[in-house]
Write a structure and sequence with these properties.
The protein is mainly alpha-helical and 190 residues long. The protein is built from seven helices and four strands, in the order βββαααααβαα. The protein has a single domain, classed as YbiA-like (Tetracycline Repressor, domain 2, Orthogonal Bundle), CATH 1.10.357.
């Protein structure tokens, strides 16, 4: 019995490397539920927080790098269910990005059956990590999206662009904010 040839691998991460457009930092605005986000990183990081004021601060950050920094800060508490919902939000952002930008959809479909890997020394969850043994969840979600796009050509774009975030109990909780330095507690919207 002949074994299958090994699948090719595509690595992405740095701005000056091929396939940087797969990164959440690529400058491809997305629209979700009628709101525009400068990058998928802005969208994803802002979803971590119940505090609408802080989420807006992330949304309007001048760069994806600053949006990531704000999202990783624990100056505001993250939503309690974040570990349970983070991949859903990542996929919503990826679906928007790769269906709203035809060039990106073509690029992703052009990877054929290659294994897609985020080559990040800093992140062993979304990327492969310094030891190259990370979970590579961003790469896995991109490959899943690639399969979805292949299965329903033509229809998939309409279905994904109109997808709305699924509400959950956490979304219905009050907006809980910790004041920014120099703000009084009563300056924060409730």
């Amino acid at each position: 019995m002949a074994s299958e040839p090994p699948r090719s691998k595509i690595y992405f991460y740095g701005r000056n490397l091929p396939y940087f457009d797969f990164s959440n930092f690529s400058q491809h605005p997305i629209v979700i539920d009628g709101e525009q986000w400068p990058t998928n990183e802005h969208y994803f990081q802002s979803r971590k927080f119940n505090c609408a004021k802080y989420a807006d601060t992330i949304k309007w950050a001048p760069s994806a790098k600053i949006a990531a920094m704000l999202g990783r800060s624990r100056a505001q508490p993250i939503r309690e269910d974040w570990e349970d919902v983070k991949e859903n939000f990542m996929m919503i952002g990826l679906q928007a990005k790769f269906t709203q930008h035809e060039v990106l959809k073509t690029l992703l479909l052009g990877t054929r059956d290659a294994i897609i890997i985020e080559r990040s020394d800093k992140d062993a969850y979304w990327g492969d990590g310094a030891a190259r043994t990370g979970k590579n969840r961003l790469g896995e979600l991109l490959m899943k999206l690639r399969e979805q796009l292949r299965e329903q050509p033509g229809e998939q774009e309409e279905q994904l662009c109109g997808q709305e975030e699924q509400p959950n109990e956490q979304d219905e909780q009050p907006d809980i904010c910790t004041p920014f330095p120099g703000e009084e507690k009563n300056d924060v919207p409730s």
